[in-house]
Amino acid sequence: MQMKLWPAVALATAVCVAAHAEVPDFPLDFSLTSTAVNAFGAAAAHQRAGSLVSKMTLDEKLQFIHSEYAMSSVPGGGAGYIQGVSRLNIPDLNMVDSATGSGSTSQASTTFPATIALAASWDRRLSTEFGKQVAIQLRAQGFAMGLGGGTNLAREPRGGRLFEYLGEDPVLAGEMLAERTDGTQRQKVIATIKHYAGNEQEHNRGGGNSQIDERTLREIYLLPFEIAARSAQPGNVMCSYNRLNGDYACENAHLLNDVLKNDWRFEGQVQSDWGAAHSTAKAINAGLDEEEDVGSTVYLTPAAVKQAIANGSVSTARLDDMVRRKLYVMIRTGVMDDPPKASTIDFAGANVFTQAVAEQSMVLLKNDNNQLPLSAASLSRIAVIGGHADAAVLTGGGSGNTRDPVTGSFAGCGGLTFGTSTGCSWWTNPWLKLNVPIVSAIHALAPAAQVSFAGNSDQQTPFRAYTQQEIDQAAALAGRSDVAVVVVAQPAGEDFGDLQSLSLANPSNQDALVEAVANANPRTIVIVESGNPVLMPWKDRVAAIVEAWYPGEGGGKAIADVLFGKVNPSGKLPVTFPMHDQDTPTWGQNGAFEPDPVYAEKLDMGYRWYDAKNIAPMFEFGYGLSYTHFAYSGLSVIHRPDGAIDVLFNVRNDGRVAGAEVPQVYLGVPYSGEPPRRLVGWEKVGLNPGEARRVRITIPQRMQSVWDTSRNNWRYVPGGTVYVGASSRDIRLQGS
Ligand code: NOJ
């Protein structure tokens, strides 16, 4: 078998020693895989921004802090628009959603895999490239600012927007976000990180009050933002809809001024989520720099701000600061001097990239007796069942979606719609013919076999329950086939609410479908398309399981490549897959969502919860199999004078095929309230059969620290236990 790796992994392999230079006043030191972008030197950019502000009239300044365009009228089908000042050569700034590609409502875009998939790749360079490829398309469509970069954590495993985020660990999420941000800004597109902060559920999304103590905030929920803000310097931070400890996020002085702008020295701008501003003077004085209007919320309009200045509740110095921040970001990223121009998009090239991302992110969850990879030569009849595998793969709905290139509208999704008119979760691309459904992709790899599909081919109501007749037909097909591939799908999207359960509820009887097929054919392989963990009551009765996430437009081919071993899976779970809903930290007595969620589990979120409570998950954080096997040995832990720790160990591919492993370093910090283990570093290492590599991962002092509420600062806690594992529970080496 050939090892097919995106060049990113190959490169990461070559430099598997993580270098972390010391910056005295910045102990949280994560080096990017490249140097953070700065098209224009920071000092010069500040000076130039200041000089421009001094030349602007009051009206010109006010035009810079409020996007008054209803989304339907934003040029180019974007989400927001700030008009430039031509007499000062300041260009217009047009922005668009970009979680999985451009969300323009009128222009075609590639559909990239969901970002939960990107997190599952654990591949930093792939994340940089993801940010770059999305940004190339944004610029070609005329957008200078992307609104991707979601990084709320998977506290609520049923969260409706989990697919837009980067999993449950703050360090994994933060580093992947930093890389993505850097990749975007290198293309002269301003990057956004969002939704800041405490926005971990859709329930009561307009105003829920997330109650999170300071230590939990600093160590868990703010950390991904801090890592990205400090190391990649995104131009834009989007504050969220919810309240945090009483105040709305967009008028929360602690969140915006104290933490973001003062502690982290963030020099960019804070923008409200669409309609998330709730006041004029309070918000401005708390640190909000720009309001995004959805028609009804009008707090930073020229009239309102003029009045606030007149009555003294907002100072002109603060207004200048708001404008200067925006200009600074435009100058620094290169948008000011080189605004985007319409150009042609290389959809075929981007399609190849999306397939590579999907391939690197798939997680092999189970593979009894090496049932995978399949060998085309030994199969004459292949059954493919369910999940509309004959037509398309699933993507998430809402602003984390892309539009159909043919019609440019949400409604034109090849007839496959989900939920409401604003959600098109099934993606087809008949115009470009780049979307190869799973059935066709399998057929291409096993041309001599008969590949048959059974399931629900209903494109108008794709998520209706399978009928008993459809289940019986699927089982009969499986019974007369050499192998049965069952595709199950869990749709989700912004503004569709959170999932009620992690069970495969939509359609409600997908579990029955899997059971019937598994009863008919012991060689049943399950492919899961989801943005959330799913429950698998049939886990022990199927031969193999692959988590494919929402794999983007190259997903069909990527899935087939994994099934037939053209790609050796190397993804690892960025989120715990529990055994039952009741095992999750947020289920409580009956699974009801709290309108004002209290983060009572504190630091014990995600895998920390299962470890602290001794609950066995179905598949733990960091878990993922390969078609080869990796052996770990030779741990040494070296303490450096600066307090950092170098963790060195060997990883050997002792199987017969090439593959990539993600060795993970966890730390048990000896301090009250800390969870048993926290992730502090990892590498993705590509190895040929028999090849070994010595990996070095440096843990900065800050990653060995806790938030000390009595001092309102970080406290370094030396003497922790170092664990090196193939997952958060498959610990192979241990030292102190
Ligand atoms: C609201 C969403 O929460 C946010 O993520 C998105 O960027 C804006 N709408 C603009 O579409």
Automatic annotation (TrEMBL):
UniProt GO BP: carbohydrate metabolic process
Ranges for domain Fibronectin type III-like: 661-728
Alphabetic keyword roster: Hydrolase, Signal
InterPro entries: Cellulose_deg_GH3, Fn3-like, GH, Glyco_hydro_3_C, Glyco_hydro_3_C_sf, Glyco_hydro_3_N, Glyco_hydro_3_N_sf, Ig-like_fold
Recorded GO MF terms: hydrolase activity, hydrolyzing O-glycosyl compounds
Pfam families linked: Fn3-like (PF14310), Glyco_hydro_3 (PF00933), Glyco_hydro_3_C (PF01915)
Residue ranges the record marks as coiled coil: none
Protein name per its UniProtKB record: Glycoside hydrolase family 3 domain protein
Species annotation: Paraburkholderia ribeironis
